Amino acid sequence: CTPTKHETMSATPTRFRELQKIADGMHSGQVKTSPEVRRFFLEFTNSLRAETPGQAVGKMLQSLRSSPTPQDLYLDFDSACREEDITLADCLSEIGAECIRSAEGKTFQTAMSQAADLTGLSAIRFLSAWAALNTDDLSACIDECDRVDEPYGCIYTLQGQAYLESGMAKEAIDSLTLATKLSPDDVLSWFQLAKAHHILQQYEDAWHAISRCQRLAPMSPEVDLLAGMVAIALKDPKVHQTAWQGLCRHLSVCSDNVEAAIVLLNLVFLREDKPGLQQLVEGVDWLALMAQTSFTSHLSRILGELNRRGWHKESALLLEKLTANRAG
Q: How far, in Å, CA of 83 to CA of 41, rounded?
């Protein structure tokens, strides 16, 4: 259920409970901290309980502005959060997600940008960039990432994704290549890098990146689908076989996915694989596919490919399946 615009954090399943435990500890004296941090913390949790997430973040920003040492205040606040084995960044990320769902995403992004200016902390700048990306303010995301001086892979991944969604694939590759060097085990960085190379028709590089993804996330349908799309552009039977095997593992969960079905059919044609076609005929939800215009627009080409190869029996079998589904 998406929160309404005026829903408070106390009404949603977030880390609010952990924050409230810390606030209760401050009230009782069990959690020791400075008067400034205590006041900051209690004002923030009270705001979360009574106001919208965006308003609560605004209160936090006001507290940082009024402090002579905003970075120390934030870090002391974070230390208090760790009493419940959480971090302030964790809390803010959940609050940010609530803001985005309740149409306060821009409010959160602006507050995080200003909080990062006050504290000089990259973790807050990351949240600003993340919020900008998730509110489709791609230029703001790119700019916020540029303002981080420390070498964080997650920052370059965000920037690369923003470049990619802005249609700037070359710039995306520069950022994402840095991200993979800084965080070589991050699947998202390699996945976005493969997409960027694929867009620029740099298929060998795309295959290298998506192969790394497959090793890091060997059972991901999204990774194996992109691998299939890249493989189709290459003239390597081994690559075709690897892509086929990877995507077929997800046949039951993507049997009504038009893009996956088209990729699998193309791999069948490239591999001249009649048994593979039989596997698709039995495993794909043709009724669900036929209900989608994006699939029916491909149907004449698919049947034409079957007949061009002389696969008349297989073509008749597929037509029978489609006709039977329509009749049902």
A: 13
Cβ-Cβ contacts under 8 Å for 283 (sequence gap 6 or more): 251, 252, 255
Residue pLDDT, tens place only, 294-315: 888 898 899 999 999 999 888 8
CA dist 197 and 206 (Å) reads 5
Helical packing angle, 70-81 and 16-28, nearest 10°: 100
For residues 15 and 146, what is the distance between their CA atoms, to the nearest angstrom?
Answer: 30
- Say what the pTM is: 0.87
Task: Return phi, psi of residue 201, to 5°.
Answer: 60, 30
Total residue count of the chain as it appears in this document: 328
Residues 205, 13: Cα–Cα separation, whole Å: 42
Question: What is the DSSP track for 185-231?
Answer: T-HHHHHHHHHHHHHTT-HHHHHHHHHHHHHHSTT-HHHHHHHHHHH
